[in-house]
Write a structure and sequence with these properties.
Blueprint lengths: L1 H23 L3 H28 L5 H9 L4 H27 L1 H10 L1 H14 L8 H22 L6 H58 L1
Helix pairs in contact: 1-2, 4-5, 4-6, 4-7, 5-8, 6-8, 7-8
Length: about 220
Amino acid sequence: MRKRKLIKIITYLILAGIVLRFITGVHIPAVAVVLLILIVLIFTGSKKKAEKKEELPNLTKSKEEHYETIGMTDQEIIFFRDTMNTAKKQIVQLQENMNTSAKLRAIDLRNDTLRVSKALFKELVKDPKKLHLANHFLYTHLPNLVDLTSKYLEIDAHEIKNKQTYGKLEESAQIIDQVSKLIKKDYEQFVSEDLEDLDVEISVAKNSLKRDNDSSQNKEE
């Protein structure tokens, strides 16, 4: 179907080129170049749009209603879904990388890297309006960690290793450990507001209990 549409577009463009040749007197080679550029642009643009549509999963009715309830615009919804789709793929890749190497598994266990990453992802899904609070995680720490672990595995897979290779692997492991700690910090900062709200509620509840106890004691006296 797409090929037929493309053939029609090419036919129309050729006809337009012939008409342009007779009206303006522009040389045929120039017309041909213009037509070629237009065809490439049209084909590339349609291909990119198709790929983008294929990348994003279908939007469920419940999710759509949730986004509308919290006041998200269509543009915000598209941006959020695209961002989270990328993050999901990165987390899946990170999990695969971490589970491939004993050294990386140890770093993951020490820092709860995968568990924390998935937890922060879930928090964002619950409250898309907080997306900006996870900028460091989404655009720096998570993609960097995926790249670092992928490169680590690539070097670790070398059949012959020398002193320099082992040194680079150790240096990479240290950096991976540090970035994993940053991801844990990202999560702690993201949920800190919730913890503060909980502290306030606990404080209010304690004061209420104290007043009730004092009131009960006064009545007994």
